[in-house]
Structures are given as C-alpha cells and as structure tokens.
Amino acid sequence: MDIYQLSALAAALCWALNGLVSSGPSGEMGAMAFVRYRQWVTLVMLLVFIGATALLGREGFSTVDSNWWLTIIASGLIGIFLGDSFLFITLNRLGPRRTAMLFSCNAPMTAVLGWLVLGETLAAGEWFGIALVTAGVMLAILYGKRKEQRHHWESIKGALWIGVACGLIAALGQAVGSLIIRPVMQSGADPVTISAMRVGVAGICLSLLGFLPMQALKAKVTMTKQLFAVVCLSAFLAMALGMTLLLYGFSGGETGIIATLSATTPALMLPLIWMKTKERPAAGAFAGAALVVIGSGLIFQG
Q: What per-residue confidence (pLDDT) applies to 197?
C-alpha cells in the first residue's frame, strides 16, 4: 500500500472519528446550531490555508472563473447547506453508526444520477455494487443492534423512518452537490478554494436561517469553551484534515482505489465504537459495513 492509499484510509478514519466526536455535542447544542458554527470555523481554517499557501506561490481564487459562481453557489446550497444539515439531524436521531451507513448511500446515488442526468453508462459490476451498498445499509439499519447494547449511540430518537429519510436526504445532497461541482473541478479550479466558497455559501444560509423564529434553529445551550473546542475539532477532522488527505490521495493515486478506500468509514467506525462503548456491535452491523465497502469498490472501480 503506497502513501496515496494510506492517505485515503486516513481520510476515512478522520471522518469516522468525527462522527464519534460530534455525536454528543451536536445533540446538546442542536444540529443546526452545531453545523452553523462548524461551517464558519471550517471557512476560517480554509482561508488561512489558502492565504498561507498563496505566500508560497500557490494560486487560489484566481483559478476560479467567474462564470462558475452560480454553479458553486448551487453546489454549496445542496451539497453543504442541505447535505451537512441533514447529516447532523440524522446523527442526533440515529447515532454515528447508522448515520455513517446511510451517508454511504451517496456513492450509489452519485452513480445513478450520473447515469440518469449526465448519460454516463453503468457496467454490470457497478449495478451490482449499487445493489450491495443498498443491501448493506438495510442490513445494518434493521439488524445492526444486539438486545444487550444499551449505549445511547444505539438508541433511536423519534421515528426510525424519519431518521432514515434525513440520512438519505443528506446522502442525496452530497451526491447532487458533487455532480454539480464536477465541471468546475474539471476546469482546473483550485479544490481548496472551491471548498471554501461552498462552505461560505452554506455558512451564510445557515446564519440567515438562524434569524427565523423557530426553536429548532436556535442553539439549545450557550456556547462554552468545551463545546467550541469540539466544533473546532470536528471542522479540523472532517474538512481541514480529512478532505486534504483525500485530495492528496487523488493527486497521485488511482481514482477508483482512492475513492474505495475513502469509503471505508462505516467499517472503520465499528471498532472505534466498540472501544468507546465497550459493547461489541452486532453481526449485522459488521456484515452491512462489509457489503457497503465491497459495493463501493465495485461502483468506483467501474
């Protein structure tokens, strides 16, 4: 395994850790408030990186053609504002394990949307991969918990179907956002700059949303140093470090292999949950995660 493949695995591990780190605090603060703070912290981190690398001669905003601005805004609205918001709503309802499984549906969703909207062809292996991911997610959701498991991460808050719907909306937002931004990335625009612009769009929308007289949009508790530290850690793990590692992996590795390795988050999360809760995940959780990784491999390798 070379450095690029290790980088992709490290990115998946960052996202797995982020799910565990964010679960409690996002529930304490409220999903929308947590996401709102996280977007602004992420934006600051990305802008600092862009500014620092600009001093070394790296081009940033100058690589983005103004003709793409509406496309970037649309991608930020759907992929980050909608996708990230529903991701954390799902996290608060279903816990990190189920959320990771549902979010992994963005891989087959992207493939199917590419076939439907962009006219891309799907080989038999890719269709089989889509079926495996779907089966894996269903298996992990329906049979992923043992009766002996009592940790609150395995509890379901509210109706299961609402949590599942939110998770699928999050995955769909990610898939649509990725498809929308694809031509922008193919034009040679700087990935970090595009990420900053998309995050900025989401941050503005979330802040405007916070002015609405709806309790669900407000922070449940006053921001403390401990909560802010978790917000910063979440932003660093998921975006600053995780996404940077993934981009590095794509810079020198084979796209299909890198994408597959980065999709191992649901599998990597299981031993982490086991270590944290001292409760062994159910066989259905392991089997479901394995199907998701294998299915993702077939999709990305297609």
A: 93
Cα separation, 239 vs 228, whole angstroms: 16
Reported as a single tens digit per residue, the pLDDT across 104-130 is 898 888 888 888 887 888 888 889 999
Number of Cβ within a 10 Å radius of residue 223: 12
Structure tokens at 199: 């995050």
pTM for the model stands at 0.89
- The pLDDT value recorded for residue 255 is 66
Q: Rg of the Cα trace of the chain?
A: 19
Residue at token pair 């956002």: 177
Q: Which uninterrupted H or E stretch holds 3?
A: helix 3-29
Query: What is the DSSP secondary structure assignment for residue 238, as one 8-state letter?
Result: I
Is residue 214 classed as helix, strand or coil in its secondary structure? coil
Whether 240 and 42 have beta carbons less than 8 Å apart is answered as yes
Cβ atoms 249, 7 nearer than 8 A: yes
Q: Kindly tell me if the per-residue pLDDT of 216 is higher than 90.
A: no
**Dihedral in degrees, nearest 10, Cα atoms 271, 273, 278, 283:** -60
Sequence-distant (≥ 6) Cβ neighbours of residue 290 within 8 angstroms = 136, 267
Residue 176 amino acid letter:
V
Over 90: is that where the pLDDT of 270 sits?
A: yes
C-alpha neighbours within 13 Å on the C-beta side of residue 86: 21
The ranges assigned to domains in the chain are 3-301
Report whether 133 contacts 296 (CB < 8 A): yes
Q: State the number of CA atoms in the 13 A half-sphere of 70 facing the CB.
A: 1
